[in-house]
TrEMBL record:
Protein name: Glycoside hydrolase family 19 catalytic domain-containing protein
Superkingdom field: Eukaryota
Signal peptide: 1-20
Glycoside hydrolase family 19 catalytic domain segment(s): 63-289
Gene3D superfamilies in alphabetical order: 1.10.530.10, Endochitinase, domain 2 (3.30.20.10)
InterPro entries: Glyco_hydro_19, Glyco_hydro_19_cat, Lysozyme-like_dom_sf
Record keywords, A-Z: Disulfide bond, Signal
Length: 315
């Protein structure tokens, strides 16, 4: 039933996209002195963020194609899976919450570039001498190709018990690993990912949706989300300052990956994410000079927010 609903919603939004070439003018109302807007299918629900540019106003199909230019080449591993419509359809559920709509046009473009920079770096099959360069191969994968284990942690057997015969290896735009992560994400999206993790490799909209949910949601209580640290909603405490955590792209890596990437010095995985972000800023017409100084971009000297429970085996 859930998958039918998702398919119906996807088709409806794709039809709206195809029929809507001009930017949608928002409906506006004032509630308790605050301006709220509803912008139709892409930013629905009377939100202050819907009064701003929505993602399709400044990020269009040709830009998505430029960013992920090699994803459908014959040697890629998810040919025909990822597309612009799937991204926009997934993003529509989070734009009323501020995803790509929090600030002015420049800020919003930077957030989309940052999010997709993480996606590109985690799904790339590019290498140094690859055609088009190593950064042109984002969205090459939608799943881990040769998992070495099933990623079942029995510590969570009462909350997120592993389904017999099911493997919880990496899937999605920001790949999910382990039964507890599939369980938590599935609960949030109201999709049974614990019993059917393969849904993430069957439906690109759901694969993007799970990644945007992770971007918008704190990994743990009393920690910020990647969205909040990037757009400036998060205000560092004294302890954060001592830990060298500052608002910006570097701390999004700390939120998403913790000790697997951050506090490790000048690591390849950190630099790969940064390189994708800067490359996407250039391709989107923003320019890498808008990314900020080195200490904002990196997390090499940051103290991790927390230690991943499976960090020793999931890297």
């Amino acid at each position: 039933m859930e998958s039918k609903w998702l398919l119906f919603s996807t088709m409806a939004i794709m039809l709206a996209l195809g029929n809507c070439q001009e930017p949608v003018k928002p409906l506006v109302k004032i509630v308790k002195g605050k301006k709220l807007c509803d912008k139709g299918w892409e930013c629905k629900g009377w939100s202050k963020y819907c009064c701003n540019h929505t993602i399709s106003d400044y990020f269009q199909t040709y830009q998505f194609e430029n960013l992920f230019a090699k994803r459908n080449t014959p040697v890629a591993h998810a040919v025909g899976f990822w597309d612009y419509h799937s991204f926009i359809t997934a993003a529509a559920q989070y734009q009323p919450l501020g995803f790509g709509t929090t600030g002015d046009k420049l800020q919003n473009m930077k957030e989309v570039a940052a999010f997709l920079g993480h996606v590109g770096s985690k799904t790339s099959c590019g290498y140094g001498v690859a055609t088009g360069g190593p950064l042109a191969w984002g969205l090459c994968y939608n799943k881990e190709m040769s998992p070495s284990k099933v990623y079942c942690d029995d510590y969570y057997k009462y909350t997120y018990p592993c389904t017999p015969g099911v493997s919880y290896h990496g899937r999605g735009a920001l790949p999910i690993y382990w039964n507890y992560n599939y369980g938590e994400t599935g609960e949030a999206l109201k999709v049974d990912l614990l019993n059917h993790p393969e849904y993430l490799e069957d439906n690109a909209t759901l694969a993007f949706q799970s990644a945007i949910w992770r971007w918008m949601t704190p990994v743990k209580k009393h920690q910020p989300s990647a969205h909040d640290v990037f757009v400036g909603n998060w205000k560092p405490t004294k302890n954060d300052t001592l830990a060298k955590r500052v608002p910006g792209f570097g701390t999004t890596m700390n939120v998403l990956y913790g000790d697997q990437v951050c506090g490790q010095g000048d690591s390849d995985s950190m630099n790969n994410a940064i390189s994708h972000y800067l490359y996407y800023l250039d391709l989107m017409g923003v320019g890498r000079e808008e990314a900020g100084p080195h200490d904002v971009l990196t997390c090499e000297q940051q103290e991790p927010f927390s230690v991943s429970p499976s960090s020793a085996t999931s890297s």
